[in-house]
Amino acid sequence: MSFFVHCVLFNILKMKKKLSSFLFIVFTTFCFGQNELKIIQPYLQENASNWKLKPSDFSNLEVASHASSKAPNTKHFKIQQTKNGISLVDGFGIVTVKDNQVVHVTTNFVSISEPINRPVLSAETAVISALKYLNLTSAPLTLLKSEKNKMLFSKGSISKEDIPVKLVLSQKNNQLLYLWDLSIYPKDSEHWWSLRLNAETGEVVFQNDWISHCSVNHCSTENHLVSETMMTPPPPPGLDQYMVYALPNISPAHGNRVLVVNPSDVVQSPFGWHDTDGIAGDEYTITYGNNVYASEDIDADDFPGYSPDGGNALNFNFAYDSAVGVQGNLDAVITNLFYMNNMMHDIWAYYGFDEESGNFQETNYDGSGVGMDPVVAHAQDGSGTNNANFGTPPEGQSPVMQMFLWTESNIPDLLTINSPVGIAGSYTCSTAGFGPPVPMSPITEDIILVIDDGASTNFGCGLISNGAALAGKIALVRRGGGCTFGEKVEICEAMGAVAVIVMNNTGTSTQAMGGTSSATIPSIMISKPDGDLFVNQINLGNTANGTIVNPGDLTATDSDFDNMIIAHEYGHGISTRLVGGADNSDCLYNEEQMGEGWSDWFGLMITQVASDQPGDGRGVGTYVTNEPNNGEGIRPARYSTDFVVNNYTYGNTNDNSLSQPHGIGFVWASMLWDLNWALIDEYGFDSNVKTGTGGNNIAMNLVIEGLKLTNCGPGFVDGRDGILAADQIIYGGVNKCLIWEVFARRGLGFSADQGDPGNRSDQVEAFNLPLECILGLNEKSAATNIQVYPNPSNGELTVKNSSSEIQRIELVDLSGKVVYMNTFVNANFEVVLDISILNKGLYLMKVQTRTGFQTVRIEKL
């Protein structure tokens, strides 16, 4: 049967009945991708040597998935390598085809050899081995479905979802192995494990946590796609209304709730937010629809609980009673969560997180993608505090967003130092989301600085030199050192401590401590400056004595009201689905991956307003941590283009004191935020967040398209190159040098080296540009007026700017090599350089100030 006839029959079949998600993926990728494969395969074989591969490595390929592009007549195809009819799970690439020509390849392709093992282990035995590895109780397995090299076992009493198992190949260290690939969602945990086991020995060779909870009743194999004969015209605009913290508002601390009427987007949610079948008429009057099912999960059973009901009029205008706090206002809380998830869906679909690319919808209206995967959003989830999370399984299975309450943060009078006199007084602190609350009865004891065994550090993560001294005392430890807050408290408690004070390791504020712990003593956090003050006094030999006490009624905040945090969590789903394709949730697992950074950036972008300035400091989580709106929040610094506010560069990712993954992601988001402002400076700002044409909208296009062009298991260089490729594909490369300038400013320049993306300590930063951008730089001022004299010079050069402090100076020779670079921490309006050691010739001097940069040609005599 011809390819054409296959596809015609499929389209007829799609109109006649609903297919399983598996069949839908198989047929749509086959029908959509076979013609393109005829273009892609010869191209890959002809250019195999560019990737140090052989033409034979591309002898057997399949189209695993495809994604849309913002460029016309352009698609991104995920091309999977196969051998013996079995997919190489880590052997694939994203190939972009534009006007029937390959224009870009993002390669994770591998060299194919002969397998060194045999698939003698049965699928059932592989599942049993995985259960043993995870320390889970095994039980009899029931086989539900078996296809070639693919099995589906009943979840039984083992898993919250049925257990899919498939035979795959994987090329590691030039050795090809047969593996069993499977996923298990244990009933007694918050993990959804993706595992791969050696198909001969049963050894686990890969493990990743999807952290997903798909608990509602549409995780079956039934496909909810609407056929062409069923689809009806969208209904007229509705009158549904929601009392929420409407975008671009961030939280209750940033503005009041307002009533928004019919906010669903007519293009991205054409049947409204309460439809699930693509037929005019709402299926639900609660906070449940095609894009999200929002409810409370206070009892942490992972099943949807209470959802507010707007009635037939869909009126979600619920009052808020401040006297009972967030826990007494579930209607208002869940309505805001429902609104924000839908807004994230509708906004980012315009930039390419759409149905074809694997977004989250029950029914996919345009017939592409799989569907059956709206977000399951749990408000005030009882399984934790001081956090939020989002777990993303492959397309066709619902992701889960868990939003937690946050315990008290930045509370005055929680800690009083009684002695020594030099530091006596009350201090602002934050509490922990684990262990007992700070008691109403005072704890007054001496404060003992923990000393790590065999080291001059105070992390309290393992053996402690002065453990005996902690008995009956308050332990003082530093944040960091490779262990969690809860582990620190447990270790100190084992030594007899009655309470623990954790010193923050960054910024000038505190944050609520999250996580889980079996500790039975209270713990609090103080700021880094206060902690340093205490340590100095103790090191001088002074005895510190303090009192910890609950000063009164401490009301928690709710991340369901923090739109930045909701956007951040939803952003994890976007980056997971786009990097490596919607069928693969295992690409953002490595140490240098930037998922946390992309997520922060999503929140920053949709909360911008026209009055914002590039140097303004933007904190994340200031509402839940009870900080001022201009506070630092839960990141090492505020997001700002101003190096006085945020001077982090690529080199900082090597520093183990910068947390992983949040600290690493913070550096990446700092670069993306700079990119946004550079594009706004070039093209202006557009408050139309969906279809505007400003620099901010261009940035959103570039980042979403760039995600689709970023390698699986990425480092910063991969992410940067994805954005450069996106600019070439969408805009013809017109922003190329602007993008290079932005990344080079924070150390991700032309010569930067990410090393092994699986190692967070081998990055090499560089601040240089490619030669074409150096030679093509315009000598125009960007809100600066730089004077350089004398020029030419054979000795000293004076660099002066009367309007803004000089932050960084670079000298680059005409080959692109950086021959001089210096960052100035103090305010400098005038800098003198000695260039006597440079060779004679022309150089480019780039001067960065707080308000912009200027490039000047200089000559060394």
3D architecture notes:
The structure is a single chain. This protein has 861 residues and is α+β, with helices and mostly antiparallel strands. Among the domains are: 3-108, Roll (Nuclear Transport Factor 2, Chain: A); 123-209, no CATH class; 411-553, Glucose Oxidase, domain 1, CATH 3.50.30; 587-758, Neutral Protease Domain 2 (Neutral Protease, domain 2); 775-860, Immunoglobulin-like (Sandwich). It has 13 helices and 33 strands. The strands form eight sheets. The protein has a seven-stranded mixed beta barrel. A six-stranded antiparallel sheet has the order 5-6-7-8-9-10, with helices on one face. The protein is globular, with a radius of gyration of 28 Å. Residues 1-30, 212-230 and 778-783 have low confidence and may be disordered. Its cofactor is Zn(2+). Keywords: Hydrolase, Metal-binding, Metalloprotease, Protease, Secreted, Signal, Zinc, Zymogen. Residues 788-853 form the Secretion system C-terminal sorting domain.
**Fold-level CATH name of one domain:** Neutral Protease, domain 2
Question: How far apart lie the N and C ends?
Answer: 77 Å
Kindly report the average pLDDT value.
88
Q: What is the 3D shape?
A: globular
Rg, nearest Å = 28 Å
- By CATH, the architecture of one domain is named Orthogonal Bundle
Query: Mind describing the biggest β-sheet?
Result: 7 strands, mixed, barrel
Poorly predicted segments: 1-30, 212-230, 778-783
Helix content: 10-25%
Name of the CATH class of one domain? Mainly Alpha
Number of strands: 33
CATH superfamily of one domain: Neutral Protease Domain 2
Widest sheet: strand ordering: 19-20-24-23-22-21-25
Total DSSP helices:
13
- Secondary structure category: alpha+beta
Q: How much strand?
A: 15-25%
